[in-house]
Design brief:
- There is one protein chain.
- This protein has six helices and no strands.
- By secondary structure, it is an all-alpha fold.
- Helix 1 packs across helix 4, helix 1 packs across helix 5 and helix 3 runs antiparallel to helix 4.
């Protein structure tokens, strides 16, 4: 049973790493971008209302974007099945980007309310610890470090080419 549990964790880690890396990359900047809308009176009012939600209202608010984007994702899969791969991929990536932005922004607003739900308060820190440990292992891996080295080298080369011209 212990071996099966380790195997399932390894499979989950491999499947989740790309999603986690995308969300880690986009979470903060996308939340900040949406947060800038707080300069608008209507948006600031919405943020205040979200912060004041009771715990289970916060859960509903947090789940709403997922529910609303589900038909868009189904449409993307339908388009893919109908032979429109470019449109499907653009639609699915756009839905992922918009969904991540909204969820990141929402989570920052409703996290205190969510932490008042005992199950969430118990499991969220465990999830975060597991996720951080997994992403640290990925970032310390040889392929990740090689890709970063290549990216940084390419960036330096590009800058030197621009300065030379």
């Amino acid at each position: 049973m212990r071996i099966l549990k380790k195997l399932l964790r390894a499979i989950a880690a491999v499947l989740l790493v790309p999603v986690l890396l995308f969300e880690e990359w986009g979470w903060e900047p996308l939340a900040r971008a949406l947060g800038k809308l707080a300069r608008l009176t209507v948006w600031a009012h919405l943020e205040n209302r979200l912060r004041a939600l009771p715990p289970w209202g916060a859960v509903l608010a947090f789940l709403a974007p997922m529910v609303l984007l589900f038909p868009v994702k189904l449409l993307g899969l339908f388009l893919l099945g109908q032979g429109h791969p470019t449109t499907a991929v653009v639609l699915l990536l756009s839905a992922k980007l918009v969904g991540t932005a909204i969820l990141a922004w929402l989570f920052q607003l409703v996290e205190p309310a969510l932490m008042r739900i005992p199950v969430f308060a118990r499991w969220y820190p465990r999830w975060k610890t597991w996720k951080d440990r997994l992403l640290t292992a990925v970032r310390l891996s040889i392929p990740w470090r090689a890709a970063r080295y290549l990216k940084n080298s390419t960036r330096r080369w590009w800058r030197s080419m621009r300065r030379a011209s």
